[in-house]
Fold:
Amino acid sequence: MTVIHVTNVKVVGPYSLRLSFNDGTTKRVNLRHELYGEVFEPLRDPEEFAKAHLEGWTVAWPNGADFAPEFLYELEPEGEPVN
Structure:
């Protein structure tokens, strides 16, 4: 069983990321409906969301927010598949 991790992240729109994973999967996801709770609420500001970066094996933000790579992998893609 392969341990999933994010290998590349790019902000491509408000609340949207293009993610690449170590198994070759690439997709665009929208996190708008996942930004709740104390650590994620600041990311509702598009300028803060745009600070997304790769940290270790997943996506993180300067305020300490991050998502598990497995969670991101399981999200439905936004729009047309990238692959």
Notes: The CA atoms of residues 15 and 31 lie 5 Å apart. The chain has two helices and five strands.
